[in-house]
Amino acid sequence: MSSREPMWFCHQCNAEMRPLMVPEPVCASCHGDFVEKIEDPADDPREFHHGDPADAAGLDPFLMLMQGIMNRGIPSERGSPRPNRSPTGGGNASSSFSFQIRSGSNGPAVFTIGGPNTLGGSPGLSSRSSSMSDFLHSGDDDDRPGIAGPLMAQYLMALLGNRGSHTELPGGLGDAVERGRMGDYVFNQEALDQIISNLMENSNASRPVPATDEIMDKLPREILEVGSSTLERDCAVCKEQFQLETEDPDEQIVITLPCGHPFHSACILPWLKSSGTCPVCRHQLITQPEHHPLPPRGSSPPGNGASRGPGAGGDGNLFHSLFGSMMGGGSSSMSSSTLGSGSSQSPTGRGGREHEHLPGGWDEELD
Amino acid sequence: MASISARRLSKELMEIKNDGCPVGINLIKADDFSTWWFTIEVMGESLYQNEQFTLQFRFDPQYPISSPAVQFIVTEGKQAPVHPHVYSNGHICASILGNEWSPVLSVIAVCVTLQSMLASCKEKQRPIDNDRYVKHAPENPKKTRFHYDGECQCYRIIPIQDLTIRFL
Questions:
Q1: How far is CA A277 from the centre of its chain?
Q2: Does residue B83 sit in helix, strand or coil?
Q3: Average pLDDT over chain B, rounded to whole?
């Protein structure tokens, strides 16, 4: 090599040139910024063609890993014929995949792994390549055990420190991964604890389900009259005996729940708006979340094991539970507004739920 | 007209004054319908012999529809019992104070239930997540949604009607 300033190679237009320093080097020919100085004869960029994985300086171990996955992961190699994906299918490019990395100021770099020999330099190749998610997803259709496509893609994206990848992941994970930011990751136990706590605390899995207006409207109402047998009973909410000629005429209205327990309408309706159960026997007017992992209690009516919403425990997969409850927690979060001073609870008042301090719920942020 | 909560609390207070509290439980402060204090002792054989704790009830205007905020007092030289479901800040992880609250329950019912919870304790220890919880805990325990059945080895108390207590 002479002592002259070495030439540069542009990976975008394959030109050898001296770059324009603006101040980052860009190709003098095409103004692309994927340029490389030709300095090491053992690693001459001209020997490689655009799209060759060997260009990925520093990513070699990763690429080796990917290659390894390729070699093991193609379904057709495991005896389930899949003509379009056969790696031995000659010019068939669908067994390869490409992905883009945006890093630093070098703009997007496209890597294609697998497939036919790219040293052949077929320029149309990358457009025929299947995407990373296609590739990863292909494992899903197979009964192959192990890491499923979306999860694997997530791992890989995390490895890549993915930001703004064009890859679309199947199964709805794409969004979560694509919008990944540093704030989405935690690096110590305490932060993880905090996130888990928040997830747990925001979970509405065990939050009581209020009775609907329809259910409450349909409950039988009785206006107390002389001689009514209800007059011998107590309202279990206010602990008062039912009586005639009360100060407040509303107290003459008695609602008897399907389980047979009577209450003043003004006593039971606010409760039903926070929990659709009988205060005495917990008879469910509306299916409540199952928060008893233990063998069900004798008092639980049969057939009520159905869980509610995505946050409820049970058969849903863990990821869905976590995410479902995280989302659900937001939409059903309680307001902590209080009743106007001096106003009594009206049996027909709307939005009573907003006034309740729900048992055990989060009313506001942590202090 | 007095609110439902005031009427209900005055009725409970009257019963306490007329009939007295169950053994080991004593009302020491009920100046208004917002905060009541009780002392609580575990009678008979237990890990808490000769210990006395102070239990605070705070009521909001929606009581008894909404549960009271119940905790042990840990100021003025008072201590919370060392128990797997009592945090060192006095907060209590008990389902009847949370999602198993029912307006049928009363202040005395809660006292008796917590007394039983202490009486049946097998080993004096703090909840495993005590430090973490106490560090982040809201002032009002009602703002915590305790999990009564998770891996946090939490605990459920079957409502007082059943008068049984079950551990996970």
A1: 31
A2: strand
A3: 83
Q: Do A339 and B139 touch (CB under 8 A)?
A: no
Is B19 inside a domain boundary?
Answer: yes
Chain B residues close to A362, C-beta within 8 Å: 143-145
Would you call A292 an interface residue with chain B, using a CB distance cutoff of 8 Å? yes
Domain of B116 in residue numbering reads as: 4-163
Cβ–Cβ under 8 Å, residues B71 and B38 = no
Q: Is B168 contained in some domain? A: no
Q: Which residues of B touch A292 (CB under 8 A)?
A: 149, 156
What's the structural domain count of chain B?
1
At residue A331, does pLDDT exceed 60? no
- B13 domain residue, yes or no: yes
What is the pLDDT averaged over residues A263-287? 89
* CATH number of the domain enclosing B35: 3.10.110.10
- Mean pLDDT lowest among A31-35, A81-85, A116-120, A313-317: A313-317
Report the distance separating Cα A361 and Cα A347, nearest Å: 23
ipTM over 0.85: no
pLDDT at A107: 54
Closest by CA position to B162, among listed B87, B97, B112, B127:
B112
How far is the C-alpha of A318 from the C-alpha of A307, rounded, in Å?
Answer: 14
Which residues face B29 on adjacent strands? Answer: B37
Most B CBs within 10 Å, among A189, A202, A206, A366, to test the B interface: A206
